[in-house]
Amino acid sequence: MSNHKVVILGGQGAIGSLLGRLFTQSGCTVYRVDQRTQGEHSFCYQLDILNPAADSEAIFTEAKAVVFALPEAVAIQALPWVLSVIGDDVQIVSTCSVQTPFHSALRAAAPGQPFIGVNPMFSPSLSEQKRPVAVILDNCHVNEHWIERILTQAGMRISRMTPEEHDRVMAFCQALPHAAILIFGLVLAKSPLDIGTLVTVAPPPMRTMLALLSRVLLNPMEVYWDVQYENPMAAEPRQELLHAIQQLDSIVQAGDQTEFSNNLRHIAQQLGEQLNISAADCQHIFSTLE
User: Fold this and answer.
1) Can you give the residue ranges of the Prephenate/arogenate dehydrogenase domain (predicted)?
2) Residue 143: pLDDT over 90
């Protein structure tokens, strides 16, 4: 793979930087394209991908792969021009949080263009060792892709999915927990209580929720917007979350401890073996809080 040239659109962003480092470590020559250029990388190009200069196509000459490490809407808008300046054998790589819209746009414009999606299931600020990554393919039963090999060599755990499967899973793995965290934040922001007072007496669950909320607030807003807005499958778990809050409120208002207990038992049964595994995770997290 040492002869592969990889062009990363959005190469200065968090995901673009992560993949750029992994491709470089594998021996690829990485060209980073972004609206802003910074750092000490050898091949960095400043380019507005939605309004490219006349000679910009030279960046893609002899590219083996083009990575779209861009917000979903920008990636889809940029796709037609990129396809017009590359060969039909160049690998398209999507890092979109929601894969189906980009994949559909690609297949409508270039049915035979090689495609793979890569969605790391962790913040790039964390080590990639033993972290999960979703790999999106047209056909999940094909042999190992060369990009999968790079991810595996970096110590990541791969889960293969089709674009539709990916977006359904992400509706519950990303959109649902993010929505719950944001609802917590919205309620907290309206509280008349002083946040300092709350933190002083906050037990581990409250501190953990504050930590999750703070991480969301300090990361790029566009990431969380795309997870909610760009994925039409996210509407269902959001509505179920609202329904569950109303259901809990009704049970408590009615003083129905039996129904409350029945619901907890049902949830525990649904978790199955994961119950004890996640309880151990929680104990580990709580033990790190001082």
Assistant:
1) 4-282
2) yes
